[in-house]
Design brief:
The chain is mostly beta strands. The chain contains 2 helices and 6 strands, in the order ββααββββ. A hairpin with a 5-residue loop joins strand 4 and strand 5 (108-118).
């Protein structure tokens, strides 16, 4: 079997559809992509009345005002949590300018108006944590399966 190299700028075929969970509310719909979650806990610390891992469903979008839910979701660095506002609500705006930084454990934290190519094809994103070590099974996104999962990941000299 041979692999053909894609032309630069060409969209890759969609090989796998991301598994999304949707939580519908009156003013906002929250979507969650479990494979992208890196457990930063911005959600559960930011709005525990909406995001509570001890209950099912763990997301109750109507437990807080939609604007507040959207604000906390925008803190999710991996982009695992996203939202769609009800008709007439404000969509998430991409950061301008686009920023890229390397986390202490090696991931690339990117925010902006992004097109990300991977196993799901080309996706429009506003927030991602990309694999910096090449070990992720969810390329190009980080899944903490490589060196970034090491216990001393916050000490650069130990990596």
């Amino acid at each position: 079997m041979t692999e053909e190299a894609a032309e630069p700028g060409a969209e890759s075929p969609i090989t796998e559809k991301p598994r999304l969970k949707e939580y519908d509310g009156e003013g906002i719909t929250v979507t969650f992509e479990p494979r992208r979650c890196l457990h930063a806990a911005e959600c559960v610390h930011g709005l525990p009345e909406v995001f509570d891992l001890s209950r099912r469903p763990w997301v109750l979008p109507d437990a807080a005002p939609a604007e507040r839910v959207a604000e906390v979701i925008r803190r999710c660095p991996s982009g695992a949590l996203r939202y769609r506002p009800a008709a007439g609500g404000a969509e998430e705006e991409a950061d301008v300018p686009t920023t890229v930084r390397r986390s202490p454990s090696g991931q690339l934290v990117v925010r902006g108006d992004l097109l990300v190519s991977g196993g799901q094809g080309v996706r429009h994103e506003t927030r991602v944590m990309l694999c910096g070590c090449g070990a992720s099974a969810n390329q190009p996104y980080c899944d903490h399966s490589g060196p970034c999962a090491e216990p001393d990941d916050d000490v650069a000299e130990d990596r």
